[in-house]
Design brief:
Length: about 80
């Protein structure tokens, strides 16, 4: 995660699954998974989970890098694929 130009490693491992039916599943070790809806708008390269739009900065077969605004701050998050 990156805020104000500073990179930070997450304190916990977060597992995220995007299903074809528009379901987004987020889970951490020791907690119940939560389900939300996700959508993608190709024209703006925007991925929305819940009510939060996230700009796709880069994507390949190994990682997805997103930018979003939370509490007035821009956050950049890199998600890495788990095999």
């Amino acid at each position: 995660m990156e805020t104000h130009g500073k990179k930070e490693l997450a304190d916990e491992v977060l597992y995220i699954t995007f299903l074809k039916d528009g379901t987004f599943i987020e889970s951490e070790e020791g907690t119940e998974p939560s389900e939300e809806k996700w959508s993608y708008k190709h024209e703006t390269m925007t991925l929305t989970t819940g009510d939060i739009p996230k700009k796709i900065l880069s994507i390949n077969e190994k990682e997805l890098k997103l930018s979003s605004k939370m509490d007035g701050q821009v956050m950049i998050v890199t998600l890495k694929r788990v095999e």
